[in-house]
């Protein structure tokens, strides 16, 4: 854990989005990861939550000092304000926040933004200066547009699960790729809109932006969709591997570990067979000379490689692979990654405040020379309500009245 004075100073850097205010109407992962990314870059993110429970991701589990792991991961650096948006007073306060904001991010159920007065057309009329980005499951104008969408559902609908795991055994990729990728595309779209607004310097340079989880997953399915469209063949999942290249997978080692080996072209295969394995017979075998042929003979070639890997410990296999210039990795579990020496050597862990105490958290992926992105605290539900409303000009008596009426 970094505790140096230099690191502490860098952590205080306001970030490239300093001065940008984001209002977030968000649940679960996609929008929260989008806005956490903006917060890491220095934006002020005001997370508006329901007074009765807030973001439902707060309650998935309680493993992080009584807090949920999903929520802690996606919500550092934000201010939590509780508003009952079903009430007239709550909606009025939301609009007062938006009058001072630069960005609105939402991922509510279909039709919810319109019901509370912040749909695309309503925002264009009332807050034209705001970049209003709405994340949905399936976008508008299609037969699935009104359906609820969660990560697993969209991954299944988009075909991602059909190319994961093994034939006949449906599997969802472990990380929530539909949620996370949509959130990151949303952040990119917001940065583009903010850049355009600053470039044209228009007082009404906000703009409406929409990103759907289904469109995002269809984009990430680019290779298999392109292959199937032009070949007529639906590639089958191959577990820890790729339908396009062989060898490319995980193999048990003599010491009970698992080595991951990857080749992506014929030259790499020749080096693996001749230099790493010492098997010129495999390198010269006509069945394995070309990539498409190795794919056809995947089973026999994988069996040869697996049998050889079982004779050597992981460290020796990786050393041989490095010497031969072959891509390789260890098959790690989450507990091993938590203690990963590469993360430690590169000083990637910091501490973040939460309502339950300080916790370790990974630095954001972007590395800016000479600065370190801000990693603010994880907010308690409604922790910043009074402060934010006071900044809007509400008196303590008015805030107390709103609490008595259960608007807050």
Descriptive overview:
This protein is of the alpha/beta class and 408 residues long. Helix content is 41%, strand content 13%. It contains 19 helices and eleven strands. It has helices at 5-11, 30-40, 69-74, 88-99, 112-115, 120-126, 151-157, 177-200, 213-220, 222-231, 266-276, 280-284, 291-296, 298-309, 314-324, 334-338, 341-345, 385-391, 396-404, and strands spanning 21-25, 44-49, 78-82, 103-106, 131-136, 208-212, 248-252, 258-262, 327-330, 349-352, 359-362. The strands form three sheets. A six-stranded parallel sheet has the order 3-2-1-4-5-6, sandwiched between helices. A three-stranded antiparallel sheet has the order 7-8-9, covered by helices on one side. Strand 7 and strand 8 (258-262) form a beta hairpin. The longest helix has 24 residues, at 177-200. The protein is elongated and about 85 Å long. The protein starts with a helix and ends with a helix.
- What is the overall pLDDT average? 92
Which quaternary structure do these chains form?
single chain
User: Strand order, biggest sheet?
Assistant: 3-2-1-4-5-6
Form type: elongated
Tell me the number of strands: 11
Which SSEs are present, and which pair or pack?
Elements: H1 5-11, E1 21-25, H2 30-40, E2 44-49, H3 69-74, E3 78-82, H4 88-99, E4 103-106, H5 112-115, H6 120-126, E5 131-136, H7 151-157, H8 177-200, E6 208-212, H9 213-220, H10 222-231, E7 248-252, E8 258-262, H11 266-276, H12 280-284, H13 291-296, H14 298-309, H15 314-324, E9 327-330, H16 334-338, H17 341-345, E10 349-352, E11 359-362, H18 385-391, H19 396-404
Parallel strand pairs: 1-2, 1-4, 2-3, 4-5, 5-6
Antiparallel strand pairs: 7-8, 8-9, 10-11
């Amino acid at each position: 854990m970094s505790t140096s004075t230099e690191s502490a100073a860098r952590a205080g850097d306001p970030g490239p989005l300093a001065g940008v205010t984001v209002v977030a109407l968000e649940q679960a992962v996609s929008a929260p990861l989008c806005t956490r990314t903006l917060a890491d870059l220095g934006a002020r993110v005001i997370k508006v939550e329901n007074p009765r429970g807030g973001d439902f991701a707060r309650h998935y589990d309680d493993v992080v000092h009584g807090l949920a792991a999903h929520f802690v991961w996606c919500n550092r650096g934000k201010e939590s304000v509780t508003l009952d948006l079903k009430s007239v007073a709550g909606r009025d306060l939301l609009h007062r926040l938006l009058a001072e904001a630069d960005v609105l991010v939402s991922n509510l159920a279909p039709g919810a933004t319109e019901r509370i007065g912040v749909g695309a057309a309503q925002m264009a009329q009332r807050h034209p200066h705001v970049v209003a980005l709405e994340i949905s499951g399936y976008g508008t104008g299609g037969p699935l547009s009104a359906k609820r969408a969660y990560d697993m559902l969209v991954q299944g609908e988009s075909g991602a699960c059909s190319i994961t795991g093994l034939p006949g055994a449906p599997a969802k990729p472990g990380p929530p790729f539909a949620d996370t990728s949509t959130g990151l595309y949303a952040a990119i779209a917001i940065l583009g809109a903010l850049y355009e607004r600053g470039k044209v310097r228009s007082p009404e340079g906000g703009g409406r932006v929409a990103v759907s989880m289904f469109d995002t997953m269809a984009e990430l399915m680019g290779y298999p969709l392109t292959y199937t469209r032009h070949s007529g063949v639906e590639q089958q999942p191959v577990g820890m591997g790729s339908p396009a290249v062989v060898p490319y997978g995980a193999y048990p080692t003599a010491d009970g570990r698992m080595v991951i080996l990857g080749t992506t072209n014929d030259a790499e295969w020749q080096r693996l067979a001749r230099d790493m394995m010492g098997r010129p017979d495999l390198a010269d075998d006509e069945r394995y000379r070309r990539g498409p042929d190795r794919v056809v003979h995947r089973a026999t070639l994988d069996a040869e490689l697996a049998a050889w890997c079982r004779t050597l410990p992981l460290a020796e296999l990786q050393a041989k692979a490095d010497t031969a210039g072959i891509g390789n990795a260890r098959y790690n579990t989450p507990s091993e990654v938590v203690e990963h020496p590469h993360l430690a050597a590169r000083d990637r862990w910091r501490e973040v405040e939460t309502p339950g105490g300080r916790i370790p958290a990974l630095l954001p992926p972007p590395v800016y020379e000479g600065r370190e992105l801000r990693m603010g605290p994880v907010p308690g539900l409604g922790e910043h309500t009074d402060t934010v409303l006071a900044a809007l000009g509400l008196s303590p008596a008015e805030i107390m009245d709103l609490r008595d009426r259960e608007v807050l």
